[in-house]
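Severity: low
Component: inverse-folding endpoint
Summary: output formatting inconsistent between runs
Steps to reproduce: submit the following C-alpha cells with default settings.
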C-alpha cells in the first residue's frame, strides 16, 4: 500500500508528522492492506493565520476495484487531525468491506 501526502499552503509536513501518520495507519494496513492500492492524505490550514481549530486532515483510501472512500478530521494541530482521520477511515473501511463480505 502506497501513502501519498499532499500538504496545502500553510501546512508543513515534517518527517515527524509523516512518521506519526504512518504509525496511525499501521492498523489499517494490517487489516486492509491487501485490498488497498494507496491512501492519499491532504493537510489543510482551514483558517490560515487566524489560528484556532484549523488543521484538517482528509484521508482518501483507494480500494482495489471499488470507489474511493474518505474520512476527515479537524483539530488544533496536524497530529491530532491525522489521528482522528485515521480512526474514522478505519471505521469507514470496516463498514465498506463488511457490507461486501455480508452480501448473499
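Observed output (run 2 of 3):
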Amino acid at each position: 500500500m502506497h501513502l501519498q501526502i499532499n500538504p496545502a499552503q500553510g501546512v508543513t509536513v515534517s518527517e515527524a508528522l509523516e512518521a506519526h501518520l504512518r504509525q496511525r495507519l499501521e492498523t489499517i494496513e494490517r487489516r486492509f492492506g491487501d485490498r488497498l492500492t494507496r491512501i492519499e492524505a491532504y493537510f489543510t490550514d482551514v483558517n490560515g493565520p487566524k489560528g484556532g481549530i484549523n488543521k484538517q486532515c482528509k484521508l482518501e483510501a483507494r480500494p482495489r476495484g471499488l470507489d474511493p472512500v474518505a474520512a476527515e478530521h479537524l483539530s488544533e494541530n496536524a497530529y491530532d487531525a491525522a489521528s482522528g482521520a485515521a480512526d474514522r477511515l478505519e471505521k469507514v473501511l470496516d463498514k465498506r468491506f463488511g457490507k461486501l463480505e455480508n452480501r448473499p
